[in-house]
Write a structure and sequence with these properties.
Number of strands: 0
Radius of gyration: 29 Å
CATH superfamily: FlgN-like
Order of helices and strands: HHHHH
CATH architecture: Up-down Bundle
Strand content: under 5%
Structural class: mainly alpha
Shape: elongated
Distance between the termini: 99 Å
Helix content: over 70%
CATH topology: Methane Monooxygenase Hydroxylase, Chain G, domain 1
Largest sheet: none
């Protein structure tokens, strides 16, 4: 069981390291969204996808380790979350402390990343609303009576210029 616990702690530390790497990337993403830099946003998204693949792989490994731990201690692996595992280690205070610390760090990293991603999601939503507003504004301007956006716009514009010059002379 000790080697399984070491493996679990190692996997959780690796996950935490990836989440910690993602936090400044997500914060940079905030600036990129505000600046409307689509090329940089695409690069950041690609980097995030790579990290997600790594996390997915680590999650599979974590689930495998927890399944093996459940087998060793004769418990249903579905009931073995980190809090439960920490409580089960009361006779192994060193492992309990290590697991508790890495679980807390991981939880804080995930919460920070979730906060930044929620902010980014709101910014993207606001940006989309602004785009919709601008499109609707352009559509209404195009359909408004007296607009000059027709096949003969250049002729209509010339008439307006001629009338304006006539009015200016009066």
């Amino acid at each position: 069981m000790a080697s399984l616990m070491e493996e679990l702690i190692s996997v959780l530390e690796q996950e935490d390291a990836i989440y910690r790497e993602l936090i400044p990337i997500a914060e940079k993403k905030t600036r990129v969204i505000i600046d409307n830099d689509l090329a940089a946003l695409e690069q950041i998204t690609e980097r995030e996808q790579e990290s997600i693949q790594q996390i997915t792989s680590l999650e599979r490994k974590r689930q495998e380790v927890v399944t093996n731990m459940g087998t060793v201690i004769n418990r249903n692996p579905a009931t073995l979350d980190l809090k439960t595992l920490v409580n089960l280690l009361d006779k192994q205070p060193e492992d309990q402390r290590k697991l508790s610390l890495v679980a807390d760090r991981l939880s804080k990293s995930i919460h920070r990343l979730v906060d930044v991603n929620n902010q980014n999601q709101q910014l993207i939503h606001q940006s989309m609303e602004m785009i919709d507003f601008n499109i609707n504004l352009m559509k209404s301007a195009m359909s408004a009576p007296g607009n000059n956006y027709t096949k003969n716009a250049s002729e209509a514009g010339a008439a307006v210029v001629n009338n304006a010059s006539f009015d200016a002379k009066q």
